[in-house]
Design goal:
single chain; about 250 residues; alpha+beta; OB fold (Dihydrolipoamide Acetyltransferase, E2P); de novo design (two linked rop proteins); 5-stranded mixed β-barrel; 3-stranded antiparallel sheet; 6 helices; about 30% helix; about 25% strand; binds zinc ion
Length: about 250
Amino acid sequence: MAGRSYKTEAIVLRSFRLGEADRVLHLYTLDRGRVGAVAKGIRRTKSRFGARLEPLSHVQTILHQGRGELQTVTAVDLVRSHRAAREDPYRLGVGLVGLEAMLRLYSEQEANERAFSALARFLDLLDDSPTRAPARPSLDPLALAFQLKLLWLSGYLPHLGSCTECGSEGPVVGYSPRSGGAVCRTCAADALTLSPAGITAIDGLLRRPLAEAGAVPLSERSAREALSVITAWYEFHGGFRLRTLSA
Ligand SMILES: [Zn+2]
């Protein structure tokens, strides 16, 4: 084969059928960021890839870059299967929110070691994360904390301590997507309303390690407020909505 092969860790974000036996994979790789690749023959019973390339799978892989846009998977070893997350519907729902956030926020073929590590950490924690059904996975503290950290890593840290419009000490009563932070009552005309507990919760989810997301005091109202800040950011700054968040 003409072209070049390289070895990298990768996490499977999404997978589509292609023809009779193949799959197209959206991978987030440690070495090159977002990569599209084809796994040939993966849907045959005797495929050498087995079930190692499901969404959420963390693998060590060899990819071949030819002339086409899609790279080719030539070898795969599992690093972590994340079966515990995949086989529980609630955890899977949380995982799919995280994968879709990665797909939308990190769509470039450009290595970002911190983003890769955050994703790997999120999935490791998800395997042992409590199932909070019947609550919606989109309101899960780990899902919210992971997305807030991705926004932070992509250069956006919501400012919560004082009013981002007029600089007053507050109290702050809302979040303005336009100014990217909290606002006081005077400046809250087109802001989302936030409760004091909601602001504290968002701040905790942002600043504490991902492993401690479940320990942040989070009422259902606070979780909804955190989610509204995240979705407002996606819509205002990214121009997109996550399908998994409206499920
Ligand atoms: Zn103000």
